[in-house]
Amino acid sequence: MRTLRERGIRSVAVYSDADRGARHVQLADAAVRIGPAAPASSYLNIDAILDAAARTDAEAIHPGYGFLSENQAFAQACADAGIVFIGPSVNALAVMGDKIRSKNHVAGFGVPIIPGIARPGLSDEQLIEAAAEVGYPLLIKPSAGGGGKGMEVVEAAEQLADALVTARRVAASAFGDDTLFLERLVATPRHIEVQVLADNYGAVIHLGERECSLQRRHQKVIEEAPSPLLDPATRVRIGEAACAAARSVDYRGAGTVEFLVAADAPGDFFFMEMNTRLQVEHPVTELVTGVDLVDWQLRIAAGEPLGLAQSDICLNGHAIEARVYAENPERDFLPMTGTVLALREPVGEGIRVDSALLPGLQIGGAYDPMLAKVVAWAPDRTAAIARLDRALADFLVLGVHTNLEYLRLLLQEPPVRAGQLDTALIERTLPHLAFRHADDHVLAAAALLVHNARFDAAISVWQRPSGWRLGEHRPARYQLGVGGGSVCTVGVWGEPGAASVCVGELSPRLGSLATLAVGRVRVEFAGVTRVYDVARAHGRLHLGHDGVAFDLLLPTRAEQLAELLAERDRVAGTLQPEVRSPMPGTVVAVPVSCGDRVVAGQTLATIEAMKMEHKLVAPQAGTVMISVGPGDLVRLDQIVATVTPDTKTTRDQGDP
Question: Rounded to 5 degrees, what angle do the CA atoms 14, 16, 21 make?
């Protein structure tokens, strides 16, 4: 939309009910509602989108990089309606949009491919039979889409049947097509992709490569250009292979050819797929080449010849991008929802932010959890990483749990700094990362904030929670939920500007709170001063400090009492019987009933959010009581089931 505005072209946004207040709706010159939140009723509804184009006299449609962006039927429908599809031809989409067909196609043009089985219409039984020849470990991939959705790693034969069921369900939901194929899993692979541009007259060039090896669940987290792995000779070879793939389908517009490269054999690369659209990570290429890819998409769609030759493309400096997701890395990157209560995005030399965030924006569970992209450019890779780290520290989001702290920790990892990357690095590094949790200073700050609010709300001096007594002063006690059902008690007495604060069982220490601005306070506790960004809503207190956000629950009296009763009835040494939802989402399956006997590890319910499923399992053997059903919405940490162990089992577990 920014590029359109610079070119004097009017823009029209389409939106679902879930995106009524979204940033793209506010940026556009006009906006049209196309249906409910469900993708099939809105962003995948071809008739609704074409109707919106007709109602607003739109001449062209830019499909973005999701939903219908690589859909052959949509491109054909645009052509039939006399609307320009800003993308490749229907034939290119047909060939490259089907991963099975594309692999077989490019192999005939000398582009190397990964061993596997890729034929249309393979049943689960046929895939299971063929898997032995492909070999383990292997990768299940959906033919119709990308972004990691529906991809499953299978280490052994006994895991394959269940993985195929999950992959088909996710692929059908995300792409409307559950066709699957199998590939041999390349050991320690690096994901390297090449950006191409092609016009309507046969000209094809590449704009260098991007390294996208830092991924979780096959979705990219950090991308950079150029790759720290490739030498100049390999860069030329992989670029030529990408151009050959594009020429094989008479490609036009911007596209990306993705390759797997073995970390220990960087001269060997294998075609994975071609993304027939703009990539999420296109800004890093723009920053190192100076080429506006969106602008060239528009020019090519308007019939202009490509005004660039391969010799015109020079890589200048280094760019690196981090994707900001609404997710919890400490809970296996499970997606999170919420409302943006406070927002501050980074600025500065060499920093670019592409963001969907707005203050007050509701982040729901209907779509992908990506919120923003932070990109840094510098003359060299080390300086670019340092700039990106500083930008992430300056990025404040309160009200929605994000991966901002994780991104900073990841950038500090020695293999990342050294450019020794592969697609499994995140899984290996995550267990030893030291995330910050609410320490005594954070808890003291939260208690002082609540204490200050009670002071401000007091009608008279006698209602203030100063703790003053004729004898020993009595502190006001504040319960703060720190996650997972855990509660910490903080005692405060005295004026907020000069109070005594007791965290847990520790001795009282001096604390003070001063308001710096709306939503910002300075807190001194135990001789240490910190500045916090603050937001409060729906029984929760959110504090931001030095790039880290803390989310504290302010439980009601009833919730405090329920927790105390649960602790009283729990036998020492036993597992907690409650099974809590690790993320907000929708219950999609409940395979057990109240009163059923279950074993440890048995699936009790499946929760879905942002197109990702998570299975909740029994913590121990016993009798289950389920409190949710399919279709129910659940909150973060909501109890969805309890498993009561047999009396004998409980007694045995409690014995010293």
Answer: 85
Three-class secondary structure of residue 79 per DSSP: helix
Whether 199 contacts 254, CB under 8 Å: no
Q: Alpha-carbon distance 196 to 289, whole Å?
A: 12
Count of CB atoms within 10 A of residue 249's CB?
23
pTM for this model (two decimals)? 0.82
**Dihedral Cα 517, 520, 522, 528, nearest 10 deg:** -160
Angle at 95 between CA 92 and CA 97, to 5 degrees: 90
Residue 542's SS3 state is strand
| Separation of alpha carbons 646 and 656, rounded Å | 18
d(CA 102, CA 96): 5
- pLDDT for residue 380: 98
Cα distance between residue 90 and residue 198, in whole Å: 15
Strand partners, 607: 587, 614
Residue type, 650: T
Return d(Cα 239, Cα 231) in angstroms, integer. 12
The dihedral sign for the CA sequence 16, 21, 27, 33 = positive
Per the structure block, which two tokens stand in for 353?
């932010």
Tokens in use for 139? 């990768």
Torsion of CA 596, 599, 603, 604, to 10 degrees: 30
Q: Are 193 and 157 in contact (CB under 8 A)?
A: no
What dihedral angle (degrees, nearest 10) is formed by the CA atoms of 90, 92, 96, 97?
A: -10
pLDDT at 321: 98
User: How many other C-beta atoms can be found within 10 angstroms of the C-beta atom of residue 167?
Assistant: 23
Q: What are the residues facing 589 on neighbouring strands?
A: 606
Largest CA distance in the chain: 91
Q: What is the DSSP string of 464-532?
A: S-----SSS---EEEEEEEETTEEEEEEEEEETTEEEEEETTSPPEEEEEEEEETTEEEEEETTEEEEE
pLDDT score of 475: 84
Q: In angstroms, what is the C-alpha Rg of the chain?
A: 27
Region of 622 (left: φ > 0; alpha: ψ -120 to 50; beta: rest) is left
How many degrees, rounded to 5, is the angle at CA 335 between CA 485 and CA 431?
Answer: 70
pLDDT (0 to 100) of residue 149: 79
pLDDT attached to residue 217: 79
Q: Which stretches of the chain score pLDDT less than 70?
A: 146-147, 458-473, 557-576, 610-611, 647-656
Confidence at residue 650, expressed as pLDDT on a 0 to 100 scale: 44
Length of the chain, please? Answer: 656
What residues have CB less than 8 Å from 407, skipping those under 6 apart? 221, 222, 322, 324, 392
Could you tell me the CA-to-CA distances from 456 to 178, 392, 650 in Å, in that order?
58, 34, 49
User: Distance between CA 76 and CA 97 in Å, rounded?
Assistant: 14
Closest CA to 638 of 312, 360, 216, 337: 337
How distant is the alpha carbon of residue 83 from its chain centre? 33
Strands (E), 364-485: 370-378, 396-398, 476-483
Dist. CA 590–CA 270, nearest whole Å: 41
